[in-house]
């Protein structure tokens, strides 16, 4: 079965007033892995469900409070009904690993090439891409999102070393 590690980038924090710019999905099964990134106009219910075809479980960080409600509001699809969802943030909290994903990664020694970037930078990069057709900004945004989803898999593996992940 396939596990999916999912993270979104948006134009802001309000799921009612802002848009999803990127949905990153890192698909992993026993023999292979692949990265799917839905970008801009390609962000749709149909494309998302197609990308998640065959998935057993979706793993996120703060997805219960941010990513999945944002997707439900903007794309009118409730992934919690269609898939098993596991929010790794709560496993981190039970192990006294608090803060955002990047803080937890630092605490666990999970490296990042774009260690200085955060969600605000992702918004700025999207606007640079939209306003100036800056392909380098889009490339950097996609790299940032890629690190988010691939590091979710590493985070899950590190947390499993500490014991059961609910």
Structural write-up:
With 166 residues, the protein is an alpha/beta fold. It is 48% helix and 21% strand. The protein has 7 helices and 5 strands, in the order βββαβααβαααα. It has a 5-stranded mixed beta sheet with strand order 3-2-1-4-5. The longest helix has 27 residues. It starts with a strand and ends in a 5-residue tail after the last helix. The model has no long low-confidence stretch (mean pLDDT 95).
The largest sheet, given as strand count, sense and whether it forms a barrel, is: 5 strands, mixed
Average pLDDT rating:
95
Which stretches are poorly predicted, pLDDT < 50 over at least 5 residues? none
Shape: globular
Radius of gyration: 15 Å
What topology, given as strand order, has the largest sheet? Answer: 3-2-1-4-5
Sum this structure up briefly:
With 166 residues, the protein is an alpha/beta fold.
Give the topology, please:
Blueprint: E1 2-10, E2 20-28, E3 33-39, H1 45-51, E4 55-60, H2 63-75, H3 79-82, E5 84-87, H4 88-94, H5 101-108, H6 119-132, H7 135-161
List keywords for this structure.
7 helices, 48% helix, 166 residues
């Amino acid at each position: 079965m396939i596990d999916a590690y999912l993270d979104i980038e948006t134009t802001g924090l309000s799921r009612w007033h802002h848009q999803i710019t990127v949905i990153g999905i890192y698909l992993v099964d026993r023999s292979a892995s692949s990265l799917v990134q839905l970008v801009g106009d390609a962000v749709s219910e149909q494309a998302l469900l197609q990308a998640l075809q065959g998935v057993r479980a979706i793993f996120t960080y703060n997805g219960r409070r941010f990513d999945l409600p944002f997707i439900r509001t903007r794309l009118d699809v409730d992934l919690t009904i269609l898939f098993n969802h596991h929010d790794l943030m709560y496993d981190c909290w039970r192990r006294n690993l608090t803060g955002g994903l990047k803080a937890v990664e630092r605490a666990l020694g999970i490296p990042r090439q774009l260690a200085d970037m955060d969600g605000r930078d992702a918004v700025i990069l999207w606007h640079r891409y939209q306003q100036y057709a800056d392909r380098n900004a889009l490339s950097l945004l996609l790299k940032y999102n890629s690190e988010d989803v691939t590091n979710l898999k590493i985070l899950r593996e590190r947390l499993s070393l500490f014991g059961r992940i609910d």
